[in-house]
Amino acid sequence: RDGFYQIASDGGFLEKPVSQRNIMLSPGERAEIIVDFSKYEKGTQLSLMSNKEAIMTFNVKGDGKDDTEVPSTLTNIERMSEAQATKIRSFELQGMGHMVSINGKKFDMNRIDETVRLGDTEIWEITNPGSMMHEMGHPFHIHGTQV
User: According to the lineage, what is the superkingdom (predicted)?
Assistant: First the structure.
């Protein structure tokens, strides 16, 4: 079982490629990956698996020669200093499906509980203990925005 490189996620490029053998995605989450099919012989069949079920199959049709290489750096991500933070916010996520709450309030897409001023640096502490019948915590993402 060969791996692949993850090069980006929901928010854009990662700083450098990450060699992976598997990846867990939450519903709606995205990941961009590179798979080098040139190392497989014609006729090879590869499947993208979700748990034990094939959700996509790739059929290698030709003898591809590819001398391109995955770059060692994809982008430069400027590190922020914790000392720059103007505020620390804590969020606790509970539940799944239609029973999600944040800090004890039922999730409502039409309600705005927090506002961050443009240009501010904040630290967000996310607690996601998993609850009810689910061992997995609720996936965390900010609705209505793209970084």
Answer: Bacteria
pLDDT tens digits, 128-138: 876 555 566 66
- CA–CA distances in Å: residue 93 to residues 10, 56, 110, 145: 20, 32, 18, 19
**Residue ranges in the chain whose pLDDT is less than 50:** none
How far apart CA 11 and CA 58 sit, in angstroms, is 27
Query: How many Å separate Cα 96 from the centre of its chain?
Result: 18
How many helices (H) and strands (E) the chain has is answered by 0, 9
Full DSSP string of 46-80: EEEEETTEEEEEEE--S---------S-----PPP
